[in-house]
Design a protein that fits this description.
Strand 6, helix 11 (280-289) and strand 7 form a beta-alpha-beta unit. The chain is 51% helix and 10% strand. By secondary structure, the protein is an alpha/beta fold. The chain has two domains: 2-135, Ferritin; 141-340, Alpha-Beta Barrel (TIM Barrel).
């Protein structure tokens, strides 16, 4: 009976995890192929009990007596975003499938082989889902393109495409003068371009446009809506970044719900000549105060500044003119991205 009870519980966990991943693929990603694959696997696993005596699994079920229902784990009650939801569902499903496979070996070796084959297929499906969701993950970006058409030497979309091909992992759409419909259309085009490469798209100021365009996040300046107000509206559907000009502003933004901070200005910048540059020392103070919170150093940054920033522990930069105004933005991006890659440790 204990084997039947374990297999029954594992199959239930498996079905739940597959349903979560199917729903993300269907309703969040609008990915028909992934959705169909998860659904097919769900139906295949549902047919497994047909191999065994009718009622065998049901007879072993004992929800009331399950000691595991009284065990709480601290991180089970929260998820930072869709990425964490998908990862948790993937772990739940693959672990449950392994349990069914191993126990089946004790009485139905053919079923164990079927489950083993399903498990390897699930690894691939889970990886495909993670890839599709990669841009939505809260993470430390290394190179973010601040995309502003007026600063571009080439057509803005050509610059964006070259940047994605060159290796940016984030594009921040910074167009303060575009009307809502134009901004929405531009954001949608960027999402379609960047998401297959795992590159995040962040919209400046407008969380409504970010939501409508299915972008990955919104970046808020000091004069935009408060971080806590935007978080109240969007929940965890968007990554929220905030502009900060010192440790006190950063502390305020993080406490209000920001997932990461733009830290600057580092150097003199033509896009914000009204702000006095603080230099890499400001970034050093931020990293010391908030070592686990993502950051992007910002303000007049070009290839020649990277060494000074890396020396103080910089893990990510936001760049406008050095990329947008270049005749060959892809080469600039590739060169900077290589220098910003973490150094492997032994």
């Amino acid at each position: 009976m204990s084997i039947a009870r374990t297999i029954d519980a594992s199959l239930n966990r498996l079905a739940e995890g597959l349903r979560v991943m199917e729903d993300i693929a269907r309703y969040v990603l609008d990915d028909e192929t992934l959705s169909r694959s998860f659904k097919q696997m769900r139906h295949e696993t549902r047919r497994l009990p047909e191999r065994w005596p009718s009622g065998w699994l049901d007879a072993g079920r004992d929800v009331v007596g399950d000691v595991g229902t009284r065990i709480d784990v601290a991180d089970e009650g929260t998820r930072a975003g869709l990425w964490d939801v998908a990862v948790a569902a993937g772990h739940r499903s693959t672990e449950a499938m392994r349990s069914v496979e191993e126990l089946s070996k004790t009485f139905d070796s053919d079923a164990a082989k079927i489950v083993e084959s399903l498990r390897y297929r699930l690894y691939d499906l889970e990886a495909d889902l993670r890839t599709a969701l990669a841009s939505r993950r809260i993470r430390q970006w290394s190179l973010c393109l601040l995309l502003t058409e007026s600063r571009c030497r080439r057509p803005w979309f050509d610059v964006a495409r070259a940047a994605v091909d060159g290796g940016v992992d984030c594009i921040q759409l910074r167009e303060k003068d575009l009307e809502g419909a134009q901004l929405f259309e531009r954001a949608r085009r960027l999402v379609e371009l960047a998401r297959p490469a795992g590159c995040s798209v962040i919209v400046n100021d407008r969380f409504d446009i970010a939501l409508a365009a299915d972008a990955d996040g919104v970046h808020l300046g000091r004069t935009d809506l408060p971080v806590e107000e935007v978080r109240r509206h969007v929940g965890r559907r968007l990554i929220i970044g905030a502009s900060t000009h010192g440790v006190d502003e950063a502390r305020e933004a993080i406490a209000a719900g920001a997932d990461g901070c733009g830290v600057g200005p580092m150097f003199p910048s033509e896009t914000r000549p009204d702000l006095d540059p603080a230099g890499p020392e400001r970034l050093s103070e931020y990293i010391e105060s908030f070592p686990g919170v993502p950051h992007l150093a910002i303000g007049g940054i070009g290839p020649d500044h990277l060494s000074r920033l890396i020396d103080v522990g910089c893990r990510g930069v936001a760049v406008c003119d050095a990329i947008c105004a270049s005749d060959d933005p892809g080469s600039v991006v590739a060169s900077m991205a290589r220098r910003l890659q973490p150094v492997p440790t032994a």
